[in-house]
């Protein structure tokens, strides 16, 4: 060790007390009452045990937390809603941003500025009154920032692109403890990398992005009887590629629990769920687009119709209550008759597997083209996404990942390199995260990481190392 090198000392209770004096929000150390509630996740399969949790209420709190972490040699993780945790932030400084709820809509510029804890449901409601919409995902309960930094694939994506493509600027706290406002002009490389690089480069405390004029929205879905899965899935694979970019769709094999809150036709059943949204200028023509696949099987429940942007959750009907789950996604380069047959053989209604969902989602459209201002979003060349979700309940925690990976392996002949970062799910190591990007983008990301976080301070979630593979 040279004379200029100093080994950081682990924090003491006095150090944590000093941090409390700097931070407006709550600061909780291991063993403190309220820590578990502060760091609770929506995906309850992951339980965080950080050394310190900082409940940030402003960017200055985030700056203080990062400086504290680096002074004591601790890694940093961040969480807003807890929807996307993939590993325990054990021993880290975990910054929770759920209290950062600022939202500003500029109807003339058609932009929104949101702070780090804002959920999409807040943005959709605020923008709808101005005839505008943001590029949310399948659930508006998800946080805007984390979703967008991972790319952001939603029901409006084929029409308007990835959510990250609409970002105009962001504020970010980097590993040096500095708060920067970043645009395409101020720091082109960091602007490129953060939009798609998830949380690898720092903690984004605010995001400004473009809103879009709301066309006529027609959407919803159909639940088909499980016995018609083959007919529906084969109809889907032939029908979806014929859709215009104004339409987006996905189809999923769902195994639903026997819960009383579910409609009787679905309760305890394995069904096929077709999801559909048309965002164009001819709602009548949009609604008619679903006819070919609607006729492929017995419809147990559902329909499509006009909907406001605030009702977009009705397309995918994602669960609303926290649950323990294992998830994993891959990209497909084709959806052939053989692909569908392989999916049905591995996870169709006639197969006993402990999975909740196996989904095929159509990509392409505006998501298949370069962003107006290039970014690090990966997955643009793939026409399809395959996503598997299983319950991590007692007795299944070892089985579900094994079965889920088995389903993905069965589709390997049609898998293409890369991944949607938000759909990476369970990863074995940082190198698997890096593999989501093509080699040229990977090296560019690593160069930015080495420039702004050479010590790998930001190591939570889907993190990669500055040293690379």
TrEMBL record:
Q: Which cofactor does it need?
A: FAD
| Any Pfam family hit | FAD_binding_4
- InterPro entries for this protein: FAD-bd_PCMH, FAD-bd_PCMH-like_sf, FAD-bd_PCMH_sub1, FAD-bd_PCMH_sub2, FAD-linked_Oxidoreductase, Oxid_FAD_bind_N, Oxy_OxRdtase_FAD_BS
SUPFAM superfamilies from the xrefs?
Answer: FAD-binding/transporter-associated domain-like
Query: Does Repressor show up as a keyword for this record?
Result: no
Keywords associated with the record? FAD, Flavoprotein, Oxidoreductase
- Give the coiled coil ranges: none
Mention one GO molecular function: oxidoreductase activity
Per the record, the similarity remark reads:
Belongs to the oxygen-dependent FAD-linked oxidoreductase family.
PANTHER family in UniProt: BINDING OXIDOREDUCTASE, PUTATIVE (AFU_ORTHOLOGUE AFUA_1G17690)-RELATED (PTHR42973), FAD-BINDING PCMH-TYPE DOMAIN-CONTAINING PROTEIN (PTHR42973:SF39)
Identify this protein by name.
FAD/FMN-containing dehydrogenase
Species assigned in the record: Geodermatophilus obscurus
